[in-house]
Every structure is written in C-alpha cells, then in structure tokens.
Design brief:
Layout (H helix, E strand, L loop, with lengths): L3 H27 L15 H21 L11 H5 L8 H22 L1 H4 L1 H8 L1 H15 L14 H30 L1
Helix pairs in contact: 1-2, 1-7, 1-8, 2-4, 4-7, 7-8
Length: 187
C-alpha cells in the first residue's frame, strides 16, 4: 500500500501533465489554431477540452497537498497544507506550490465571471497562468518527492518528466508569441 507521501507525489505528476496539456491547448487557442483546418482535421472543440483539462488539473493539483494530511512521517497539519511557510519539510518548495495552486484557483474562478469582467480584464487575469506554470514547474523540480530532505536529482525520471513539460511549455509559449507578432505584421 503506497504511503500518503507517495500518493501525493503521483498526484503531483498527474497534475503537472494535466496542467501542461491545459496550457498547450490554451496556447493553441490563443494562436488561432483550428483542428478542422489543420491536423487532425477533425471537429475537436478546443474550448471544451481546455475547460475540462482545467477542472481535472485543478482537482489533481488540490488533492496533491491534501493527501499529505494523512501522512504520519512527516506529519502535516491543515495549516501546513494551506499556508506551508512553516511546513515540517521543504517549506520553500511547498510555499511555491501553494502560490501556484492559488493562482490557478483565481484563474478558474474568474473564468466563470468572464462575461461580467469583460474580455480585457479577464484576459489580464488569465495571463497569470504563465506565472502559475513557471512556479509549478520550479516547485516540481526542486521538491523532494519523498519529503526526506534529499538533494535535487535533476536527471531523476520524475524531474526529467517535469523538465520536459516545462521545455514543451516554454517552446510553445515562444511559438505563440512569435506567431502573434507575425500575425500583427501581416494585419
């Protein structure tokens, strides 16, 4: 039977993949990608996919630290999970993860009020996903999945997965920015 720390680690990896997929779909939508005209030449509803990956990613991201409440070694309190600045281990990494989670919560909640906020205000808030992604990737890379205080092993399989997601996100974000500039010049 896996421990609470192991389950939390697995949920964190799942959350990184879901958040990465959500960011990629969002960047494709922002760049005006149309799956009917381009690959896979199918009527895929990117907006629906983007919303659902956001909800599932938010759920996995919220469960990731919540499972630690059942950890016996090290013990985590509710306060340690919600405000991890004084958590029993890795307070810096855990605080970064909490900040990123709270940013994602703000983005998802404000998306419900998108029409009343207005496109410009909503979009400005939605751009915080770039900050959240950056913080999430840093949290994932510097955190010790065993919460035992080990040094970071940057070529560990879990870390390479997170680093790969980060590189894919950075590459797609750069492509999106470049594509936006090209579209502006052509307009």
């Amino acid at each position: 039977m896996p421990s609470a720390v192991e389950i939390s680690s697995y949920l964190g990896l799942i959350a990184v993949g879901l958040l990465g997929a959500n960011l990629l779909v969002g960047l494709l939508m922002a760049a005006g990608y149309n799956p009917v005209r381009h690959w896979p030449k199918q009527p895929v509803k990117l907006f629906t996919l983007h919303n659902w990956t956001a909800y599932v990613a938010l759920g996995a991201t919220a469960l990731h630290p919540t499972v630690l409440l059942w950890s016996k070694q090290p013990p985590f309190s509710l306060y340690d999970v919600l405000v991890p600045v004084s958590s029993p281990v890795q307070p810096t990494s855990n605080t970064l993860g909490a900040i990123a989670l709270y940013l994602v919560v703000v983005v998802v909640v404000t998306s419900y009020f998108r029409s009343s906020l207005g496109r410009r205000r909503w979009k400005a808030i939605h751009y915080t996903t770039y900050a959240a992604a950056t913080i999430f990737f840093i949290h994932g890379i510097i955190a010790d999945p065993t919460v035992s205080g080990r040094a970071v092993d940057y070529i560990d399989g879990e870390k390479v997965y997170i680093e790969g997601c980060a590189v894919l996100f950075l590459g797609t974000a750069a492509w999106r920015i470049r594509n936006r500039r090209t579209r502006r010049r052509l307009a």
